[in-house]
From TrEMBL:
Pfam families: F420_oxidored, P5CR_dimer
Family, per entry: Belongs to the pyrroline-5-carboxylate reductase family.
Residue span, Pyrroline-5-carboxylate reductase dimerisation domain: 216-320
Name of the protein in its database record: Pyrroline-5-carboxylate reductase
PANTHER family for this protein: PYRROLINE-5-CARBOXYLATE REDUCTASE, PYRROLINE-5-CARBOXYLATE REDUCTASE 3
Protein keywords: NADP, Oxidoreductase
Gene Ontology molecular function, alphabetical: pyrroline-5-carboxylate reductase activity
Keyword Oxidoreductase: yes
InterPro entries: 6-PGluconate_DH-like_C_sf, NAD(P)-bd_dom_sf, P5C_Rdtase_cat_N, P5CR_dimer, Pyrroline-COOH_reductase
Ranges annotated as spanning the membrane: none
Amino acid sequence: MTQQQQHQGRLAFIGGGNMAEAILGGLLACGYPLSQCVVSEPIQARCEFLQSKYPGLQTLSGPDANRLAVQGSKSATNTQSLIQDGSIQVNATAASIEFAPAEVVILAVKPQVLRNVVVDLAPALRALQPLVISIAAGIETSAIARFMADGVDEDAIAAGSVKLPPVIRVMPNTPALVLEGAAGMYATADATPEHREVAESLMAAVSKQVSWVETESLIDTVTGISGSGPAYFFLMMEAMEEAGVKLGMDRATAKALTIQTCLGAAKMAQLSSDDLETLRIKVTSPQGTTDAAIKAFEAGGFRDLVQKGVTAADARSRTLAKELGGAKL
Ligand SMILES: NC(=O)c1ccc[n+]([C@@H]2O[C@H](COP(=O)([O-])OP(=O)(O)OC[C@H]3O[C@@H](n4cnc5c(N)ncnc54)[C@H](OP(=O)(O)O)[C@@H]3O)[C@@H](O)[C@H]2O)c1
């Protein structure tokens, strides 16, 4: 994604944890002006850390921080009075404590606290209609809509007299922390192509692969493939390292060879026009060493095991969605 294509509007991060930091790092690497970003985060020390690591970034903490991050502050005087009465702590240069309302709000808190956070922000979100991007695992867009509709008559929403902001749900994965993520995205019907583009350009800052799914239930499958997937490869690598050690190799060498093999195989798969099966067949000479290993894997039910693992993650994601999101609208 080039800098020209990338959205450069005002962004508010609600929650300044690992994933928010990964996205900030990716945006910085893409040349995104971090002075356009504000992070609301309850831990003051974390705010200070983020602000020192990402110069120009504004961070807010305190009881009113989330709302202020979304609504913006019309004047430095307003902000100063909020600072004085203890409603917020601001980490920013004195000149930059006036900020415009957010065009995009990234919900980057743990799923367990998302309901309270969104209910508290609901009036501001309804008034300002930013694009809402949620990276919280397991919380469906219908649940987020229900939280944003808090306190509003359902008929008013059905009649269109009260509008809810568009929501895009993203399932990133941990390699985003090293800018090598893979993310699945789902947009509600009211998200426009422009909203999709904005979300895609932001997520592409940390995810080399960004894929849209057309039904929300496929986000659970994204979780089963790429969300939980890094751990499957860690398990495979652990097992290969251990096998090398049992055959007499020192652990450091077994680990280094395993990791580079995993990386090299992924790179070949990515760069080649061959499908995965063809790539495997090409490196498997009949009666050769690879053939011997593959036959042992197949005889042990390898494919079946992988199917069971991915299906278990998909099913667990659906269960968590029910537990965390509660009843549908
Ligand atoms: N990490 C991943 O690989 C990954 C992958 C897929 C999806 N996700 C999703 O990404 C989201 C963030 O994950 P994470 O790993 O970045 O978690 P995290 O490091 O715990 O970050 C969440 C941050 O939000 C802060 N927070 C808590 N309550 C808040 C509130 N009321 N208002 C504003 N901020 C608040 C937390 O502060 P405290 O520490 O004080 O609670 C914490 O700094 C989660 O919903 C997770 O499901 C993460």
